[in-house]
Write a structure and sequence with these properties.
This protein has helices spanning 2-8, 13-115, 120-140, 143-173. The longest helix is centred in the middle third of the chain and has 103 residues, at 13-115. 93% of the residues lie in helices and 0% in strands. By secondary structure, it is mainly alpha-helical. The model has no long low-confidence stretch (mean pLDDT 76).
């Protein structure tokens, strides 16, 4: 069609105007086509970025799930250790109470012996010894000493358990 118009209006002003309008239309169409391509490319880039973000979010969720599971395991282990430690403290306290009870019974026997007729010197010695015992008991029953005794008792229990396990292993191997 263009060639027909070209031949028909070749030297005419109308041809020039008509031809320039057609070229402008073609340029506009190319411009719109370029914009459409750019928009398509932009939408594809946005879609790709969204899919990458989705994958990253899924990986982050998996990582958080693993972290939560790890934290739960650590808390469970910590609770078990605390329970074991509480049991060992209970056993140790019982042993210390038994030791103090036996000391008290020994003192009681001494007092009964004094009451049964020892001389005045023996009675004064007993009072002096009881005062020394009172000072010693205050020192022994001070919190730091009790804590030290408890820690030593706990260590002793652990060593006893360890030696019992070693003996069992040796007996099984024999």
């Amino acid at each position: 069609m263009r060639t027909i118009i070209k031949d028909k209006y070749k030297n005419d002003l109308l041809y020039i105007i008509f031809n320039s309008k057609i070229e402008k239309c073609i340029k506009r169409r190319k411009w719109w086509f370029n914009i459409a391509e750019m928009l398509t490319d932009l939408l594809n880039a946005i879609y790709n970025r969204i899919s990458q973000l989705g994958k990253s979010i899924q990986e982050l969720k998996a990582s958080l799930d693993d972290l939560n599971q790890n934290i739960e395991e650590k808390i469970t282990n910590l609770n078990e250790k605390i329970a074991e430690f509480s049991n060992e403290i209970g056993v140790t306290q019982t042993k210390h109470i038994e030791v103090l009870k036996s000391i008290g019974e020994g003192v009681k026997e001494e007092i009964e012996t004094v009451q049964n007729g020892l001389a005045l010197d023996s009675f004064e010695n007993l009072i002096s010894n009881l005062e020394k015992f009172e000072k010693l008991a205050k020192e022994i029953l001070n919190q730091d000493t009790v804590n030290l005794l408890l820690s030593e008792a706990i260590d002793s229990v652990k060593n006893l358990k360890k030696s019992l396990k070693e003996e069992e292993v040796e007996e099984e191997s024999v």
